[in-house]
Amino acid sequence: MAFLVAATFFMENLDATIITTALPAIAQSFQVSAIDLNIGISAYLIAVAIFIPISGWMADRFGAQTIFIAAIAIFTFASILCGLSPNLECFILARILQGIGGAMMVPVGRLVVLRSAPKKDLVKVIAYITWPGLVAPVLGPPLGGFIVTHFAWEWIFYLNVPLGILGILASLKLVDNFKQDNIAAFDYLGFILLAGACASVMYGMETIGQNPAHFQSSLLLAFVGLVLFVIAIRYMQHKTAPLLSFNAMKQKTFSVSIWGGSIFRIAISTIPFLLPLMFQIAFGLSAFDAGLLVLAVFAGNLVMKPFTTQIMRRFGFKKVLLVNGIIGAITIASCALFSPDTPWSVMLLLMFINGLSRSMQFTCYNSISFADIQVSDKSHASTLFSMFFQISMGMGVALAALILRGLMYAQGHQQSTLQDFHWAFIIVALFSLFSLIDCIQLKKDAGDAVSGYRPSSSA
Hints:
mainly alpha; 3 domains; 21 helices; 76% helix
C-alpha cells in the first residue's frame, strides 16, 4: 500500500516539474511564446493548493478508497486531455483538472497508510511514500528534456496513463473504504478562506519567481494570502466542526515537522533551481548538461534511502535532525565554491553528499510528523501536512529568485553573475539553519515509539 501511495505521490510531484524543459516545444505546438506557458505550471500548482484542504473531509464523508480512486482517475484522465489539447486554453483547463486530482491523491493516500500501518512500522512506510518528493523535482527537468528530444512533449502526460490504470486496480484490492459515520456538514466559509489563502500565497510566490516586472504586486498578493490564512485559523479554532482542525499542532513532534520542516523544504527546493541556472548562465553549459550534473543530488537521495530507518533507530530523531541539519547547511554553502575551473569530480561529490543529507532530513521530518497524532486527528493532520508541504516546496524557487534579484539590484547587475550565485547559496544555507530552532526544543525521547530508538543502544 505504501508503494502504491508512493507511485501516486511521484506522479503528482513529477508533473509539477517535468513540464519546465518541455515549455518551448509545447509553446511551438500551440503557436504561443514559452513565457505564456508558465500559466500551465501555475494553474496546476494553484489547483493542488486550493483543493488539498477539502481532501480530508471528502475521504471521511465518501470513503478513503472512493476518493483515492476518483483522484487517480481524474488525474489520469486530465493527463490524457493535456496531451490531446489543441490550444493553450484547453491545456490550462486540463492542467487545472489534473491539479484537482493531484490534490486529492497525496493526502488521502497518506491517510490510508497512516490508518493501516502499526506504529512500529510508521518510519518504514513513511520512508517509502516520501522519497518521490525528493526525487521528482530533481529528476523531472532532465527527464522532460529527454522525452521532448527523443519523442514528443505529449508523452510527458501519456506516461501517467498506465501508472494511473495500475494504481486504480491496486487500490481496489489494497485500500479499505474507511469513512466516518457522523461527519459534520461541509464548512463552506472555511474552505473559501483556506482556498483563497493557499491560492494567493502560491500564485504570488510563483509570479515573483517568474516575472520580475510584477514583483511588488506578487509580494502583496502573497502577503494577502498569509493574512487570509491567519483569519482562517482563527475562524476554524472557534468553530465546532471546522473544515480543518488544528489540534495536531499541539503535538510538538507534528508542529516541528510543519514549521521547521517547512523552512527546510523551502531551502532544499532552491537547489534544483539555483544549480542548473548557475551551470547555464555562469558556466555556459547547455540545459541538458546542467540537468545531468544535478542528477548527482538525485543519486545521493537514492543511496541514502535504504539507511534512513537504521540511522533514526540508532540515534533518535532529535540528534539526527540537529546534526544532519548542520551537515545539510554546510553542503548547500559548499556550492559557493563551484566555478568553471572546479573539477567535475569535486562538484559531483559535494552534490552527492548534499543529496545524502537532504534525503535523511526529509525522511526524518516526515517520519516524526505523525509519531504522536491521535487517531481522531489523523485525517486533519494529513491534510495540514500536505498543505504546508505543497506551499513550502513551491516557495523554494520564489526564494531563490528573490535572493538573486536582490543581489543583482544591490550590485547593479543586469544578469546574475557567478558571485551572485555564490552568495545565494550562502544565504540559503544560513536560512536552512532556522529550521533547527524547533528541533532544539524537542524532547530527547521525541518519537522514540516510532523510530525504535533506545538511549542504551547508542554509542
